[in-house]
Write a structure and sequence with these properties.
By secondary structure, the chain is an all-alpha fold. The chain has eleven helices and no strands.
């Protein structure tokens, strides 16, 4: 049964809006990768949610911003010869990253208010949309919490905090895709109920989460640079140089050699788990999400290997993060089709 003539345009508008915001979150993840790889994340030393939307507007403001950055330990450790022109380059990427966050906030909050006032939001979806809005606000706070970890000590942000920031962004992306797909089902059938996670897909999601977590830690510690060989790590299969002195937990979560090793080989666990889910979707007649998952999986593995073997070439590394985000969106699609319920 099709929705009423007046309801269908509203549902289509909601779906388009959510997917558009999802594309902005994807862009945010890509720019975040560039920001990390260019060591730009600590270039803006203050968090000004409103006034910070404007970059320095004159030379004096630029000099003041540069002087503030010179008090960050990272400057003295790795950027002590940086010129003002070079500072403007890293400032640009961090500013664009934060600006995108503001744009995403407005692109979600303002249409949400409009749809709400128009009565266009179907029953049962207001709470979910408010939760996504809250997660977006939390993401901004987590971003500053992450940056703060690198302003006063060390030469980079905490890789633990970076992983929270990245994984939260990917969770929001999956939530946007999932909600849009639920609404698409509602567009086709007014009696359709939201999809739900099933036990097998929960296991697959957990496996993928572990891979993404270790990938974030690899990025945060520059652990991709510990070797340029694959499948061997230097002259051996098992990495040489793991620091066990602080205990197993520290080694498994903070040693770049071991974290890199786990990320490169857990990738195959994720590959077969997520690929198996995609094959199941295909057998059940869902060909498009299966193609999306298999394509992003294959490309992601190849990009991961190429990124390592090129010493973390920035173009390949950014592409690796970008395709990772597309894989999350595709996996959310596959998980959704396998969790659909009859109306």
């Amino acid at each position: 049964m099709a929705p009423s003539a007046s309801r269908a345009p509203q549902l289509r508008a909601l779906i388009t809006w959510l997917l558009f915001v999802g594309s902005l979150v994807f862009a945010m993840v890509v720019v975040g990768g560039i920001t990390r790889l260019t060591e730009s994340g600590l270039s803006i030393t203050e968090w000004k949610p409103v006034t910070g939307a404007l970059p320095p507007l004159n030379e004096a403001d630029w000099v003041a911003a540069f002087q503030a950055y010179k008090h960050v330990p990272q400057y003295e450790a790795i950027h002590s010869t940086m010129t003002l022109a070079q500072f403007k380059f890293i400032f640009f990427w961090e500013w664009v990253h934060r600006l995108l966050g503001r744009v995403i906030g407005l692109a979600f909050a303002l249409p949400l208010l409009w749809f709400w006032l128009r009565g266009a939001i179907p029953a049962g979806y207001k709470g979910r949309l408010l939760a996504l809005l809250a997660l977006g606000g939390l993401q901004g706070a987590v971003g500053w919490w992450m940056v703060k970890s690198g302003l006063w000590q060390g030469v980079a942000v905490s890789h633990y905090r970076l992983s929270v920031h990245l994984l939260l962004a990917l969770f929001i992306l999956a939530g946007l895709v999932w909600t849009a797909l639920d609404l698409k089902q509602l567009l086709r059938n007014p009696a359709a109920r939201p999809a739900r996670l099933r036990a097998p897909t929960i296991v697959v999601a957990a496996i993928l989460f572990i891979q993404l977590l270790f990938g974030a830690w690899v990025a945060g510690m520059d652990a991709g640079k510990v070797t340029q060989s694959w499948p061997m790590m230097g002259s051996s299969f098992l990495p040489i140089g793991i620091d066990w002195s602080n205990g197993y937990w520290a080694a498994f979560t903070a040693d770049p050699y071991l974290v890199h090793f786990i990320h490169r080989w857990w990738a195959w666990v994720a590959f077969f788990a997520v690929g198996g889910m995609a094959s199941t979707a295909k057998r059940k007649g869902f060909r498009k999400p299966s193609i999306a998952i298999h394509s992003t999986l294959g490309i992601q593995v190849l990009l991961g290997i190429a990124t390592v073997m090129t010493g973390v070439n920035i173009v390949l590394a950014v592409a690796h993060q970008a395709v990772g985000a597309l894989l999350v969106a595709s996996a959310a699609w596959g998980t959704h089709v396998l969790g659909r319920r009859r109306g």
